[in-house]
Specification:
The chain is an alpha/beta fold. Helix content is 28%, strand content 24%. Strand 7, helix 7 and strand 8 form a beta-alpha-beta unit. Helix 3 packs parallel to helix 4. The chain is globular and about 70 Å long.
Length: 372
């Protein structure tokens, strides 16, 4: 059950209940526009990744600025997106299990639904589900371009699978999924460029092989916030699947730009608002945002408004901040930049949209939870 929203429209920021998931609407809208403009300038399509925000309201904002649709990772997310009005959804992942496949095939009667495969048995199961529901699933072969997660090897193994898809009733061969997730957080600009250039090479090799056998790739998809410029400029990829760009997080901020400069393509727009609940010593503040309010898989959050302060320890409902000379009082609000935006969003029921210190929007995180 969705909890009560931590704020009301028109409420000042200092009255928002905590912990709360904040969106700085000015920064958020700027990020949306910057990626939309980049895709247009490079002449590629944007299929923004909704696993970051889990909100059809945000997805529709991306579509309004030119995105062809969205990606997601699970059937449950795809269902929420379609129910919320998104008409073109790619599940950029493998889906296995009869219940999930039945739901996916049924959903394809109401929207354009894409799916990725890397296994013959999965092709057969997808085809059977699509036939039962008299629907069409737009199916991509996922190739391993360096992430070493899912995906068949580029080249001949991908060709074999594409041929099976092309011949399978209920399936339409749509192209290649070639996402190099591990490259997104390589810190050096040159490191990311090198990793992406290898992914581009493998993707182009596989595309050309499939094309020579009469299997045209309508979609050559991949890219993330950390590498999208490389894929976009490659003249191989034609769809970008970046997601985190709308929010950013402390981990992405550790990436470097050209010549070691800051990775500043987008602004921080996502924060967890916390309240100082204890001041045990002059140098220690304890806030009410801990493990249940933020994800710590990519490190500690950053303290946004206190330059010398450091968030250094968390338990379920507590976060410890070393103040470094900053002055805060009991009841003060502190904005935290999460280490990893995607799983942090998944812990909250509501976004609280803030503009100039006032609550302007309340959006449910409609696809949150473990999902199926």
């Amino acid at each position: 059950m969705t909890s009560r929203a931590p704020a009301d429209i028109g409420m000042p920021l200092d009255q928002v209940d905590t912990p709360a998931l904040l969106i700085d609407l000015d920064a958020f809208e700027s990020n949306l526009q910057r990626m939309a403009l980049a895709a247009k300038q490079f002449g590629v399509r944007l299929r923004a990744h909704s696993k970051t925000h889990k909100s059809p309201l945000i997805a529709l904002k991306q579509v309004a600025l030119g995105a062809v649709g969205v990606c997601c990772q699970k059937v449950s997310e795809a269902e929420v997106m379609v129910q919320g009005g998104v008409k073109d959804v790619l599940v950029s992942n493998e889906v296995v299990g009869r219940q999930k496949l039945e739901r996916l095939a049924a959903l394809a009667r109401h929207a354009t639904i894409g799916i990725c495969v890397d296994n013959v048995r999965n092709v057969e199961a997808l085809s059977a589900a699509a036939v039962r529901h008299r629907s069409t699933l737009h199916t991509l072969v996922e190739i391993n371009v360096g992430a070493n997660r899912c995906g068949v090897a580029p080249g001949e193994p991908a060709l074999e699978l594409a041929r099976l898809i092309d011949a399978a009733p209920g399936l339409e061969f749509a192209g290649l999924q070639a996402y190099h997730g591990a490259a997104q957080h390589l810190r050096g600009y040159e490191e990311r460029a090198l990793a992406t250039s290898n992914a581009v090479r493998l993707t182009a090799l596989t595309r050309d092989l499939l094309d020579s056998h009469g299997l045209a790739c309508r979609i050559l998809g991949g890219a993330g916030t950390g590498t999208y410029q490389f894929e976009a400029a490659s003249q191989v990829y034609n769809e970008l699947q970046a997601g985190s760009y709308i929010f950013m997080d402390a981990d992405y901020a550790k990436n470097r730009g050209p010549e070691g400069g800051p990775f500043d393509a987008f602004d921080h727009s996502l924060f967890v608002l916390a309240t100082v609940m204890s001041r045990p010593t002059d140098e220690l503040a304890v806030v009410d945002a801990g493990l249940k309010a933020m994800s710590f898989d990519s490190g500690m959050p950053w303290v946004a408004d206190l330059a010398a302060a450091e968030y250094f320890g968390a338990s379920d409902e507590h976060g410890k901040i070393r103040l470094g000379g900053a002055t805060v009082e009991l009841g003060d609000r502190v904005r935290l930049i999460p280490g990893h935006c995607d799983p942090t969003v998944n812990l909250h029921d509501w976004y609280v949209g803030i503009r100039r210190g006032v609550v302007e929007a309340l959006w449910p995180v409609a696809a949150r939870g473990p999902g199926h």
